[in-house]
Design goal:
The two termini are about 15 Å apart. This protein has helices at about 10-25, 50-65, 85-100, 115-130, 135, 175-180, 195-210; strands at about 1-5, 30-40, 70-80, 105-110, 140-145, 165-170, 215-225. By secondary structure, it is of the alpha/beta class.
């Protein structure tokens, strides 16, 4: 199978589902990671210099090699400015990614993450994966994944929280995930920060305990066609 993982920012996918990626790769499936944001075409970016993105993408490539990612797609939607893009322009970019990769299984960020980049990209891909579209009709499974520091910092009393209904046993792949996470030297932070190795391990143990395995990653099902 061909699996596409949409990552708003490089490291989201490894934090959220690095074990699942490693498992898919080990089982012989083609995994493609699409990192949708970067510096952008503007000079300069209002927050980060271009050198920041060069460093992060170099870290990401190291991590993806460890996880067994088959292909990496980088796009240049300005990070922290996805919602500033015209809808037609954003939808054109996401549609092109989906039509180029043509996945059987698709993973996207949770639509109620704190970060607006995550939200906007979920909704833009939702336009692209409509079953009336050619690429959308070929996708058999779509899931949302959780990202420590984004998924859990929304306000569940106001909008839906992350309540998983699918778990992947990643007990055999946690050390591979941790090794990949360590590549993100500019992004992973010391405990007790949510973006720490310790926090990611703790979540994996908790998700595993929910289904009786040593470590798991959890997902919300968007669509499954049998």
């Amino acid at each position: 199978m061909r699996v596409l993982v949409v990552s708003p920012h490089a490291d989201d996918e490894t934090i959220g589902m690095g074990g699942t990626i490693a498992r898919y790769a080990a089982e012989g499936h083609d995994v493609v990671v699409a990192v949708m944001t970067g510096h952008g075409d503007e000079e300069p970016h209002p927050i980060w210099p271009r050198e920041t993105w060069d460093a992060i993408r170099a870290e990401a490539q190291q991590a993806y090699d460890i996880l067994g990612v088959k292909q990496v797609v980088f796009r240049e939607i300005p990070a922290a400015r996805v919602s500033d893009q015209p809808v037609w322009k954003l939808n054109k970019i996401t549609d092109e990614v989906l039509n180029t990769v043509r996945p059987d299984i698709l993973y996207v960020p949770f639509p109620f993450d704190l970060h607006k980049d995550h939200r906007e990209l979920f909704h833009s891909f939702a336009v692209a994966w409509r079953p009336c579209s050619d690429a959308g009709s070929s996708i058999k499974e779509i899931y949302s994944y959780e990202v420590m520091s984004e998924t859990h910092w929304n306000v569940p009393q106001v909008e839906p929280g992350f309540l998983p209904n699918v778990w992947t046993d990643v007990s055999k792949y946690m050390e591979t995930k941790v090794k990949a996470l360590r590549c993100f030297r500019t992004q992973i932070l010391p405990a007790p920060h949510a973006r720490s190795i310790e926090a990611v391990r703790a979540l994996a143990v908790f998700r595993g305990a929910q289904v009786g395995v040593a470590a798991a990653e959890a997902f919300v099902t968007i669509r499954v066609i049998r």
